[in-house]
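Fold tokens
===========
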Amino acid sequence: MSGGVDSAVAAARAVEAGHDVVGVHLALSRMPGTLRTGARGCCTIEDSMDAQRAATMLGIPYYVWDFSERFKSDVVDDFIAEYQAGRTPNPCMRCNEKIKFAALMEKALALGFDAVCTGHYANVVSDANGNLELHRASAWAKDQSYVLGVLTSDQLAHAMFPLGDTPSKDLIRAEAAERGLSVAQKPDSHDICFIPDGDTRGWLADRVGISEGDIVDTAGNKLGTHEGTPGFTIGQRKGLHIGTPAPDGLPRFVLEIRPKTNTVVVGPKEALDIIEIAGTSFTWCGEPQENPENEFDVEVQIRAHADPVPAVAQLVGGELIVRPANPLNSVAAGQTAVIYVGTRVLGQFTIARTVSDLNVVATA
């Protein structure tokens, strides 16, 4: 129970379904004085108190489990290491993979519980052979299957998502109000929970350190200098401060970040159109694709709120390669690509390299 309206209603529905329910809030920070001050994260003391009030209203036991050490090593330290390597990580994906459906599930099963129930908007269904599959929620705008793409067959067998068939978040809020839950109108969380002020650049600068480096074009020609690579993102246009204009007079964009050489590579907008992505760090969500060495049709989604794009995928030499029918834009190494067949989540991988429409290859 994060302290939000979704997990509160999910718990209420689980109680109504006749399950023996225990509410658990995850303590993920070693800063006990943290309170929400304008940020909308999901792991503050205020959130813990909201979760406790909801559990009391539902008449279920409530506990706070301390996973702060595991969270630091598996999510926060990983976030820092990925940026140091020039990649753009997704900490919410890592939290689902390493904390909510690994550490939390392992402890729950060891204590004799059957499943972890969350307020994510997604559905687990059985195919004709009884194999479990993860599918998109019925409410497209609130579908959260993307961030659950890291789940395995074993984890799906012990996961419950009671909100998956609810067509509107407004209906969830109305239901929470009818149940007397104080979080009915609580805003959605959207910040990185361990960066409560939202200043990712400043947070990284304090931990990674910054130093002046070169801004170069794709041929390696120096165009200017920068104050530190943590301040840049793939696709960025503003704030480059390049004194030398491009030969065609058109603006330039960040194409690649190379922390090892403290270099930022810029180029034309067309170089951000990606025609191929690939990665070796991949997992299947449920049953694996049959004969993945042969090309198979999928849809690929590279951000939680991005539209899926038709594509073909193929496993080649241990690397999952995806070629979209239409170019993807501003893709960064370290992002998670989730592949779908219809509404079903087939699997996911961490993007390790990209190939642009101008044959610019970027790796990290």
Remarks:
- DSSP finds seven helices and 20 strands in the chain.
- Residues 5-119+162-178 form a domain with the Rossmann fold fold (CATH 3.40.50.620).
